[in-house]
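During the first year of the project, the team set up a workflow for recording each protein of interest as an amino acid sequence followed immediately by a discrete structure-token representation. This format lets reviewers and collaborators read both layers of information side by side without switching files. As required by the reporting guidelines, we include two representative entries from the current panel. The first entry is reproduced here exactly as it appears in our internal archive.
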Amino acid sequence: MTKNLSVRIAERTAQKKPSRNGQNRATFLAIRGDVKQALDDGWPVKTIWETLHEEGKVSFSYQAFRGYANRLILSSPASRATVSTPMAVDSRIGKQHGPATAQATEKNPGEPTTTGFTFNRTPKKEDLL
């Protein structure tokens, strides 16, 4: 009698050597708590990677480390809640989203809402030098 397909797959997987990417991801997952704590303390990702690389805890490239940090720490649902604070920093472009953004969304019932830039062709004398 032949074995079930799931049993054959499980046996094959147990005998198979893990891929390099799988090993790197497992390594990152093992140190994820330390990396998250360092990020929360304000350390740059590059400094964290350099320290771990010099200690021999990670052997993969900075680009791979940064990708794991973005996918597994910065994109996680728990970190999205902290990124929505008023002075959150967009990690992709390094810009701050501060109170000015919040002020632009506030509406006064009696005032017309203007957004963007409006060009006035006739300058005011007090604006000229």
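The second entry, processed by the same pipeline in the following quarter, appears below.
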Amino acid sequence: MARGGEPTLITSVQRALRLLEAVSEQPAGTTAKHLSRRTGIALPTTYHLLRTLVHEGYLEKLDDGAFIIGEQVAGLHSAAQGQGLRSRIRSVMTELRDDLNAAVYLARYDDGEVVVTDIVDSPRTPRVDTWADFKEAAHATAIGKCLLSGLSRAERADHFDRYPPADLTPRTITRIRDLIDGPEHPVVTDSEEYSLGTACMAAPVLGTGSPMTLAISFPARKLTGTGAFVPPLCAAAGEISRTLALSGDFPTAG
């Protein structure tokens, strides 16, 4: 840190960023001399920074000597969009956690598997102890049941062929016919089927390329009073659905 608490800044990095900004303002590209005049950076320094940016893929030099934005910048832009989308969705989940005093989960059915993509919890609202892999326990969780309800009966049958339902607790439902028929209501609840003492509730997130769900977990003793949980859970799932409809499908790790 510099004196007075001001951060120590790297001048060469600042100059490189100014050059990137100046290039982005010229759709057809621009020359080193123009960039030097536009940014006030000395021409020799401009050439040095441009060569570095071209080497790293952040700029591309055309045959006529003009510079344009490179593919690395496009990659950063795409990553920023994905991170921004995740941040907006996570804020909805955080608000729901605080509103219902419950851990919140976002999950999707991806290539035949149950995948939990995000969890928002806290010391007061801890996540469920995942002692059994959710991929193998779709039959025993509201998350899994909600995701499977978005599939056809044949697809659900295929899932249970690959993952035969097992007794995880004395309350686990394992009858194949009941599981394939699936829940009749959009909001799915499990009570101590996955973990004794824990209940879970899940609502579908609509408009995605594959089934997705927003879910909450909480102590099973609260289950009798969860009627008030349904409207906020459905509202949050609806908000995430609208966010994804505007932004495209949820980004997945590459």
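For the second entry, the following points were noted during internal review. The helical segments are 11-24, 32-39, 43-55, 71-100, 142-148, 153-162, 176-181, 230-247. DSSP finds eight helices and seven strands in the chain. Both points are flagged for discussion at the upcoming steering committee meeting.
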